[in-house]
Amino acid sequence: MTLITNSVEFIFWEQSCPVNLEDYTLILPSISVGNVGQLAADLLLNNLNVEKAAHINHPSIIPMVGVDPFKSGCQELTTSCQLYVCKESKIAIIQHRAPLITAKIPSYITFLTSLFKDQKIKQTILLASSFSEFFTVDDIKGIPIHYLTASCDADTIDAFSTLGWKKFALPSKVISSEFSMIPGGGIAKYLIESCEKEAIPLVALILICSEGNNYPEAFQTVECLNKWLLLKENMSPDKWQPPISWRLPYGSAAPRTLY
């Protein structure tokens, strides 16, 4: 693996020649309520024709290693944060498998915005979620997903309106100064603000939910994303196959390869 010693010095590429991400759409999760963004990224990685491109080793990311979450019996280690690419669709996906260190989040936001600019990413999509306790049934009824944008064109906003999506906002009865503007949304607020300042196109898709078994919310997020980007055409919700790692959280035995 090769270490690139510039503004993306925290990326360790799998091959000696880094992948050219110019004009790619980059999808990444915000570590937020129910881990919906991370679960949705898992679904994408398990169903798109992706290859592992790099490890991201930033000081804000808690280090960890584990078995491959997609291939049974695979001997390759999985790390806290990895970058995958789907060359045929020009899609790049960053997956997080460990929390961020709160005090180092500002430096991570700086790293991400530098990555978007240096790699000439076409657009970035952040998959996030927010606490449902701030909303009533009427607030979210009939809304597949909510969104916020930074430096996006009118055509993108029009597409969201056609899909029936709604711009995210806390209900008027909630005093935003007492809570985060996106409660439970992780880095979403900070990344949106940074991308707006740097004129970097970004869309944050925000699903309103509660903690628990959030596999259904992950499927909903991916289905909304697919209706917009057509990642896999004619793909019904029941066709998205969950990775083998999803068998483990609710009482299943740990895989023997862990030991």
Topology record:
Elements (H helix, E strand, L loop, with lengths): L1 E2 L7 E3 L11 E5 L6 H12 L3 E6 L8 E3 L9 E3 L1 E6 L4 E6 L8 H14 L4 E9 L5 H4 L5 E5 L3 H10 L2 E2 L20 H10 L4 E8 L5 H15 L30
- How many DSSP E strands? 12
- Summed over residues and divided by their number, the pLDDT gives a mean of 89
| Cα separation of the termini | 26 Å
The global form is globular
* Largest sheet geometry: 10 strands, mixed
Percent of residues in beta strands?
15-25%
Q: Percent helix among the residues?
A: 25-40%
Helical run tally: 6
* Succession of helices and strands: EEEHEEEEEHEHEHEHEH
pLDDT below 50 for ≥5 consecutive residues: which ranges?
A: 1-7
Structural category is: alpha/beta
Rg over CA atoms, rounded to whole Å, is 18 Å
Order of strands across the main sheet = 1-2-4-7-8-3-9-12-10-11
Compact overview of the structure:
This protein is 25% helix and 22% strand.
Q: Any overview of this molecule?
A:
With 259 residues, this protein is of the alpha/beta class. The chain contains six helices and twelve strands. A hairpin with a 7-residue loop joins strand 1 and strand 2. It is globular and about 50 Å long. 35% of the residues are buried. The N terminus is likely disordered.
Entry keywords:
259 residues, two-stranded antiparallel ribbon, 6 helices, PSMG2_sf, disordered N terminus, alpha/beta, globular, Proteasome_assmbl_chaperone_2, Proteasome_assmbl_chp_2_euk, Proteasome assembly chaperone 2, proteasome, ten-stranded mixed beta sheet
